Amino acid sequence: MLDFITLGWGNRNRIVEVRWKGRTLGFIADSGFRVDANDAVNHLITLSPDDLREIAKKTEEVVKEAELRKDPILNQRFVTGLAFLIGIFLMQGRLIAQHVTDLQTRPIGHVQYDFYKNSPKGFFAAGWVIGNGRYYGTNNVNLLAGIGYRQETAFENWWFESMIQRQWSESANGRRQALLWDNRFQYSIDDIVSLYIEAAPFLDHKNRGAVYDMVVFERMLWRRLNLRLETENVHKSGMDSLGVGPGVGWSCGSLGPVKVNGALVYQFRRQESDALRFYLVFNRRVKR
After folding, report:
1. 96, 40: one domain
2. pLDDT tens, position by position, 105-144
3. Residues 135 and 148 sit within 8 Å (Cβ to Cβ)
């Protein structure tokens, strides 16, 4: 009753139609499962719980069978990602030997509390705790709190947060504080492609006129492994602080309701020490 029909190849991805009792439920590509929004959603709603359980069981069997066959496209993506990761570690060893790399760790905690329920969109409270430990540069800790808005569909979702940020930093020159108005936007398509944009003008008198920004693009490479490209900059009077570089990201799973993700990025920075940064992000969304 559950049929998988190969339709052909598109953009180097094998496309397979999934049918249940003659009705189209969606399509499977090597990049993941995609629901046919025009037709399949209504069919899924009308299926009985027993039908849904059988679909889940059959789909799991097909996925396991595909893994045993060692699909060449998935293998190619895995090898590419592994080579990319090895390349970053080799680059790390070479640059550490030359003493030009600033090793950084950035643990991040992120909480969203929905003000709405039973709706694909609405407002929520947002909060962040961000640490930034640096081997050569200035260490800092950041607290952010504000409000956000989210919208979700079958294929894509996005959220926007606007918050007040307080930053405490410490270096050989003493302790400093900064105040920023931080705005963050994230857009993702079926957990395959995501774009993150952040812009934060400084509000305190000492840094007034400066703007911090960050852009991160991620593309799923294989299962939980993503290719990543990011740029992080501070625009200020005098010379701007600019950086861009590649990296890899991965899902570490969950700790109860908390989702954990990691990333390793190498940033090339203009007239500064390059940065090799490790991210560890803890995300918690509280639904009503």
Report:
1. no
2. 999 999 999 999 989 999 999 999 999 999 887 899 999 9
3. no
pTM, to two decimals: 0.68
Domain membership of residue 48 as a residue range: 2-69
Distance CA 19, CA 89 (A): 45
212-248 exposure pattern, b = at least 16 Cβ within 10 A, e = fewer: bebbbebebbbeebbbbebebbbeeeeeebbbebbbb
Element (H, E) at 91: helix 72-97
| 285 vs 288: CA distance, rounded Å | 10
- Tell me the pLDDT tens digit for each residue of 24-36: 666 555 444 444 4
Count Cα atoms within 13 angstroms, Cβ side, for 97.
6
- Tell me, what's the pLDDT at 170? 81
The tally of domains found in the chain comes to 2
pLDDT of res. 239: 83
